[in-house]
Design brief:
This protein has 359 residues and is α/β, with parallel strands linked by helices. It has two domains: 2-243, Type I PLP-dependent aspartate aminotransferase-like (Major domain) (Aspartate Aminotransferase, domain 2, 3-Layer(aba) Sandwich), CATH 3.40.640; 245-358, Aspartate Aminotransferase, domain 1 (Alpha-Beta Complex). Helix content is 37%, strand content 14%. It has 13 helices and twelve strands. The strands form three sheets. The chain has a seven-stranded mixed beta sheet, sandwiched between helices. Strands 10-11-12 form a three-stranded antiparallel beta sheet, with helices on one face. A two-stranded antiparallel ribbon has the order 8-9. The protein starts with a helix and ends with a helix.
């Protein structure tokens, strides 16, 4: 937040103003942030488009290809049944616009079979959209294998990387991934900032069309005055994520081990394949306990959730867990526990005692 404060209180120039030093310094700060964000995926700074967050980035990537798809007669899209609503809902809108969407299932481990992508490909496939890691289970998808399945095909590859950007690196550095959606607050930048990384294929850019008009900022894809203080904060967060990756990962894994050890006496069922899970996410069910009852009983000890935070105002059984083959009752018993390298020590003994009283 220190770097954000500087560009809120001291360096308040508009990065779009070229006629004075205030604007020049602001532009330089924005360009530095582009380099920092691009560095996470070994991209180029001119491939970074700043947005308000991964939801806007997803909409820009998906809806922004509609005009090109229509003009080329390529109106088929492949995705998975476990995507975030910020991907699924734009795709529903594309279906209303004449596109056909194939939603691939995952297995009980929460993972997509890359072979199913190859089987679903058609000559008119415009886009494949597969998330890097799931927001409810933490399960990491086989992005590199998906990219390989697209070899020789013109389809664009998009990944909603909100959960794993700055945490898992190698897959997102694959140059075959054309579009990467980034969420700032998942990297501990302020809420309200994100990015869409739009890679070039040689000298050719992905043919995105702007969803808004009113200015030439961000290569015409995202008009409006740039929020410099948010952008520089995202850049710094990306830099720190790279520098501190190993220590952050080790801390998160240690928390995971303590959590599983403490919960062992409760006989938890862990959701998804632990060998392909982000180190800071744990999705479990305990006995026959309903997730809502568990959340209410332990709210003074931990902040846990069910489903997605973006749909929590109208809770319904998780589409992710049901796509993994669970029944509604099974899905309703699952809770997501997540943390970060800065999370205070949890009173796991108190948590277990509270849950034991419910069983």
């Amino acid at each position: 937040m220190e770097v954000a404060q500087v560009y809120l209180a001291e360096e308040f120039g508009n990065a779009g103003s070229r006629t004075h030093s205030f604007g020049v310094r602001a532009k330089q700060a924005v360009q530095r942030a582009r380099e920092q964000v691009a560095g996470v995926v070994r991209g180029k700074k001119d491939e970074v488009i700043f947005t308000s967050g991964a939801t806007e980035s997803n909409n820009m990537a998906l809806l922004g290809l509609a005009a090109y798809g229509h003009s080329e007669g390529r109106q088929h899209i492949i995705t998975t049944a476990i995507e975030h609503k910020a991907v699924l809902e734009p795709l529903e809108r594309l279906e209303e616009d004449g596109f056909e969407v194939t939603r691939l299932s995952v297995d009980a481990s929460g993972r997509l079979d890359p072979g199913s992508v190859a089987e679903a490909l058609r000559p008119d496939t415009l886009l494949v959209s597969v998330m890097q890691a799931n927001n409810e289970t933490g399960i990491v998808q086989p992005l590199e294998e998906v990219a390989s399945a697209l070899e020789g095909h013109a389809a664009f590859l998009h990944s909603d990387a909100a959960q794993g950007f700055g945490k898992k690196f190698e897959a997102l550095r694959n140059p075959r991934i054309d579009l990467i959606s980034v969420s700032g607050h998942k990297l501990y930048a302020p809420k309200g900032i994100g990015a869409l990384i739009v890679r070039k294929r040689g000298y050719t850019r992905v043919p995105l069309q702007s969803l808004m008009v009113g200015g030439g900022q961000e290569r015409g894809l995202r008009p409006g005055t740039l929020p410099v203080f948010l952008i520089v904060a995202l850049g710094k967060a990306a830099e720190l994520a790279m520098r501190e990756n190993e220590s952050r990962r080790a801390t998160c894994l240690a928390v995971r081990e303590r959590a599983l050890e403490a919960l062992g006496s409760l006989g938890p069922q862990v959701v998804g394949d632990p060998d392909h899970c982000l180190p800071h996410v744990l999705n479990v069910s305990i006995g026959g306990l309903d997730s809502e009852a568990l959340i209410v009983a332990t709210k003074e000890l931990v902040a846990i959730s069910n489903g997605s935070a973006c749909t929590s105002s109208s809770y319904s059984p998780s589409h992710v867990l049901m796509a993994m083959g669970m029944s509604e009752d099974e899905a309703n018993r699952c809770v997501r526990i997540s943390w970060c390298h800065m999370t205070p020590e949890v009173d796991w003994t108190g948590f277990v005692d509270t849950v034991q009283a419910l069983l």
